[in-house]
Amino acid sequence: MQRGVLYGILAGALWGTVFVVPRQLPDFSPLLLSAGRYVMYGLVSLAALLPMARRVWPRLTRADVVALVKLALAGNLLYYLFLATAIHLVGIAPASLIVGVLPVTVTLLGRRDHGAVPLRRLALPLAMIAAGIACINVDVFTAAGNGGGDVLTKLTGIGCAVGALVCWSWFAVENARYLQRITHFSGNEWSVLWGVVTGALGGALWLAITLLPAGSVQADVAASRWTTFWQLNLILAIGASWLGNGLWNAAAKRLPLTLSGQMIVFETLFALLYGFVYDHRLPRPLEIAAIVLLVAGVSWSVRRHAGEPQRTAHGDGIVPSADPAGTGTGNGNAPTERRRTAV
């Protein structure tokens, strides 16, 4: 479990960088930011896939492909499209605080999954996390310098941030469940396949953008800005997407869903930290309080999980699980064998 927690923290540190790049590229549309990032991610993943293609390809099923397309569309393209739009309209802090509700939404969605700790034991840690998010809300909408933009712009930005929250909540739950259900791919192999599929979708989106009338999606920018665009997207492709997703899949393989969901809080913390560095300022008192509450809440939840016997529903009763890692492969919990059709 400790290794899974470490992987989750490192994934959050890498994912936090995605909040800064849209701020650095305000002259590029969110559609281009999403397409460009995932085209680069697809190329990086394709390079990683080539050495393992012969052993991975025969194990790929139609069900895997369908799952990969759904996860890539919701967890990558749509999520980042909503997030980039929110950051353009309302800034890093409001976007990160709304997406920061993920530990609560994912925990609630996974409350009946294998390895889940009863919600009554997580009530206080979740309350601390909610209090931390509330502190960020109060600070963002009351501190001086946060009043830019009209009401419609702010509402649109908040709506896009909520859209990102919905996409990632669904993705986090479905990806963790699928990873714990399958045994024919490692976390790294799944991440590489996921990246290739995401790259194909990103390429299709880029092609669609080029077919639209000039200027309808993206205004003209200097050649030097395009160089910066591709450089930053390459950094995101390697760091946040390829390595970050690989670390997250490794964490999801080792942690129950209620705990892996709360690891996402570190994405919020690192996004705020990077935002402070980018703005060249120290956090305000309410921001410090939020960080302390979020870290304390997640730490408390980790201790709750470490001290709780993993249990899983069995018929009408509850029986102890023989698989403390939460992978669904322990004795008495082997996943039902399903027919696999090679693609």
Describe this structure in words.
The protein is mainly α and 343 residues long. Helix content is 71%, strand content 2%. The chain has helices at 2-15, 21-24, 30-49, 53-56, 62-90, 92-99, 102-109, 119-142, 151-181, 187-211, 223-254, 257-263, 265-279, 285-306; strands spanning 311-314, 317-320. A hairpin with a 2-residue loop joins strand 1 and strand 2. 48% of the residues are buried. Mean pLDDT is 78; it is low at 310-343.
SSE blueprint:
Blueprint lengths: L1 H14 L5 H4 L5 H20 L3 H4 L5 H29 L1 H8 L2 H8 L9 H24 L8 H31 L5 H25 L11 H32 L2 H7 L1 H15 L5 H22 L4 E4 L2 E4 L23
Antiparallel strand pairs: 1-2
Helix pairs in contact: 1-11, 1-13, 3-5, 3-10, 3-11, 5-6, 5-9, 5-10, 6-8, 6-9, 6-13, 7-9, 7-12, 8-14, 10-11
Descriptors for this entry?
EamA_dom; two-stranded antiparallel ribbon; single chain; Permease of the drug/metabolite transporter (DMT) superfamily; 343 residues; 2 strands; mainly alpha; EmrE-like; disordered C terminus; 2% strand
Total of domains:
1
User: Which sequence of SSEs, written as H and E, runs from N to C?
Assistant: HHHHHHHHHHHHHHEE
Q: Count the helices. How many?
A: 14
Morphology call: globular
How large is the share of residues in beta strands? under 5%
Helix-strand category: mainly alpha
What distance lies between the first and last C-alpha atoms, to the nearest angstrom? 34 Å
Percentage of residues in helical conformation: over 70%
Radius of gyration: 20 Å
What is the number of E strands? 2
Overall average residue pLDDT: 78
Biggest sheet strand line-up: 1-2
| Low-confidence runs of at least 5 consecutive residues | 310-343
Biggest sheet character: 2 strands, antiparallel
